[in-house]
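Private note to self, pasted from the team thread so I don't lose it. Backbone tokens:
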């Protein structure tokens, strides 16, 4: 928990701002909204990843594979220092992604994501994306 009380309105606005920056491809703004020791918990990985540099690598990989990738917030709920989102990602598979060469196909998948905010910055994320649907679309 953070040392200060975080309002649901403030945490919701922080996440909305972060996804606006993501959609604009503004990695520096995304980084400015996270703690240096950001913790990333990905459903498909057994251990968390740590640090802004690791997040940046993932961002760059996704934007290289799907340059027009866009996240629409379909649901957002906040309580204390936590925010839950249901997102719909859409884009075009224009570059290599995890061994799948570019197909030029449109993709769409849902992600359920949870965030912890500390001192007004994103400190931890839990990501559970529907990668099975994404990979089916890649062929």
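Design output:
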């Amino acid at each position: 928990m953070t040392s200060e009380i975080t309002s649901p309105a403030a945490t919701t606005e922080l996440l909305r701002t972060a996804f606006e920056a993501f959609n604009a491809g503004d990695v520096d703004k995304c980084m400015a909204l996270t703690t240096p020791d950001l913790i990333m918990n990905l459903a498909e990985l057994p251990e968390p990843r740590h640090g802004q540099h690791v997040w940046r690598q993932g961002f760059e990989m996704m934007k290289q594979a799907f340059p027009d990738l866009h996240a629409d917030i379909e649901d957002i709920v906040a309580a204390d220092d936590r925010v839950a989102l249901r997102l719909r990602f859409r884009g075009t598979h224009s570059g290599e992604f995890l061994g799948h060469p570019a197909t030029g196909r449109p993709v769409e998948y849902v992600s359920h994501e949870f965030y912890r905010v500390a001192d007004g910055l994103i400190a931890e994320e839990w990501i559970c994306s529907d990668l099975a649907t994404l990979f089916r679309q890649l062929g």
